[in-house]
Design goal:
There is one protein chain. By secondary structure, this protein is mainly alpha-helical. It contains 8 helices and 2 strands; from the N terminus they run ααααβαβααα. Helix 1 (about 5-20) packs across helix 7. The longest helix has 22 residues, at about 115-135.
Length: about 180
């Protein structure tokens, strides 16, 4: 699956935000308690949805279900930059909100950036769900590190590496030229 630079960066920030909420200084699991607090604070956090969406998106953690777990719609969205994202209505058939999350969504949609924020949040939750699902293999099924779903993953990784090297000032090498 190809992620846009926007979602690549936001994915790590979202995971870090969830990790920060997970435990207190004594190592106790306080995620549920902190998420409830975040949900209560949502109206006060709305000014952050444009600049730091990951910090507010965690309020919707585990509140979105996807009608098709490996949705092409969601994969397509993850390859887009924020200005290219569709309105929230486009995802109504793909993303189902838990009742408590639907109440939060009503609050968010009153904000001018609310629709885009909900689409971004759905993408982050989708990514998090895929990551969680891939961590635990099915019972009786051995875990391997090969991505059977996406045979082009090695090409994506190679392209990402080439992009990074080009950003560092190295010349891009033509992968079909035979130069190694």
């Amino acid at each position: 699956m190809r992620l846009s630079p926007f979602f690549e960066e936001l994915k790590s920030a979202y995971e870090a935000e969830l990790d920060d909420l997970m435990t207190d200084s004594a190592g106790h699991d306080v995620l549920a308690k902190r998420l409830r607090l975040k949900r209560k604070q949502l109206p006060e956090l709305l000014p952050m949805i444009a600049c730091n969406p990951e910090m507010v998106a965690v309020a919707f953690h585990d509140g979105m279900d996807f009608s098709v777990p490996n949705s092409a719609v969601m994969r397509d969205l993850l390859a887009q930059e924020p200005e290219d994202l569709p309105p929230w209505e486009v995802l109504r058939e793909t993303v189902h909100l838990q009742p408590w999350a639907a109440e939060l969504a009503e609050i968010v949609l009153k904000d001018p950036d609310g629709e885009r924020f909900l689409v971004v949040t759905a993408c982050l939750e989708y990514l998090h769900g895929r990551a969680s699902a891939s961590i635990e293999p099915s019972p009786g099924q051995p875990r391997d590190d090969f991505d059977e779903e996406d045979p082009d993953a090695d090409v994506d990784l190679e392209e990402a590496g080439a992009d990074w090297l080009a950003e560092q000032g190295f010349d891009r090498k033509d992968r079909y030229s035979g130069d190694s």
